[in-house]
Amino acid sequence: MKKEKEERNIHLKEQMMFSELLDRLEKRSKTIYREYDGKEEAAEGFGSLFSDLQEEMKLCEEDSPEKRNPRFDPEPLPKAGELLIEGENLCLLGISESDYRGYMEVEYDASFFKEAFRDESFLRKLWEGFFQPNRAYYSIFNVNSVFLGYCGILNLQAKPWEFAIALKLQYQGHGIGPESLLLLMKALKRRTGERVFRGRVDADNEASISMMRKIGGKAHGISEVFLHGEELKAYEKKKDYLVDDRLRELAKEFQVEPRELLGHALEFWVELPE
Question: Of 71, 83, 155, 232, which one has the greatest count of Cβ atoms within 10 A?
Answer without folding.
Answer: 155
